[in-house]
Amino acid sequence: MKNTSKKIPSPIGRFIDPLTDFGFKRIFGSALNKDLLIAFLNELFKGRKVIKDIIYNPQENSGPAKHYRKTIFDLICIGSDGEIFIIEMQRAEQLFFIDRAVFYTASKLYEQGPKGKKDWDYRLKEVYLIALMDFNFSGTSPEKYLHRVRLAEEETGKTFYNKLGFIFLELPNFNLEEGEIKTDLERWLHVLRNMSKFQKIPVILNKKIFKKLFHISEVANLKKEDYMLYERALMDKWDAYAVKKTAQYKLKTAEEKIKTTEKKLEKAIEKGAEQKSHEVVRKMLSAGKFTISEIAGFAGVSESFVRNVKKRRK
Questions:
Q1: What CA–CA distance (Å, rounded) separates 31 from 34?
Q2: From CA 167, how far away is CA 16, in angstroms rounded?
Q3: Residue 181 near residue 190, CB atoms below 8 Å
Q4: Domain-by-domain residue ranges, the chain?
Q5: What pTM does this model have?
Q6: Is residue 15 a contact partner of residue 214, using CB atoms and an 8 Å limit?
Q7: Per residue in 179-215, pLDDT tens?
Q8: Number of alpha carbons in the 13 Å side-chain half-sphere of residue 51
Q9: Whose CA is closest to 167, among 188, 152, 149, 144?
Q10: Which of 37, 75, 148, 292 is most buried, taking the most CB atoms under 10 A from its CB?
Q11: 245-277: per-residue pLDDT in tens?
């Protein structure tokens, strides 16, 4: 008998999602694929730096003192000139994310201090943090997706110190259509934001470096154990999204309840104030000593309100 039931499509697409732990590390976390990371970094630095080679460091980083907890970076690389690159992918918003970013980079400056040497002139190697964010900063423009941050003189804007820098990429704000994309940086951001949705390589990404990217990112090329790791990473991402949406729903529900309660309270106050005014007006009318205008002024109501109360008394 022929099976007429429809096949349920898999939620896992043709290409891996770069915004999962597994996807990010498969693309950027292997020395075999360092040409991908070098190409991406060179587009980010726009000629400010030209990175020719990188060395992958162990991912675990100790804090600047023994009593600090260990901090884990997604990726730490050393450039050919000794510069330090911290590349991390952040899915979820954190309350003190910028403080954390500064603390992490500062720890890499601190670590450069010599151990056991008597003399040192404080000459430091450059340190850069590149953060790919799958969330938004609060209060920034929805059109701005790239933030380059440096130490600068406040009045002139002139660079004060050029060995410490931050690049923050708000990926949810990158919404250029394929026809609007012109630069290789925009191509990188487009593929990072949308690769898991692609069924084929877009024409604008028909370059050697992106062909390699798509080849290593094809789900069909994953070994069984890697597929299971990717599936777990996807579930973690979906779980995090579900938790976020649940929190947003609960917050919205709570806000709606507060608004409803406030409206009921306002109506009750208005009704009570109206009853009080009605009683004041009624007593003044009963006294027969005041004009409608005088009563309205004393009670803080309109003359038409006073006339309505007078009519009801008849």
A1: 5
A2: 24
A3: yes
A4: 21-112+123-222, 260-313
A5: 0.69
A6: yes
A7: 999 999 999 999 999 999 999 989 999 899 999 999 9
A8: 25
A9: 149
A10: 37
A11: 787 777 788 777 888 777 777 776 667 777 777
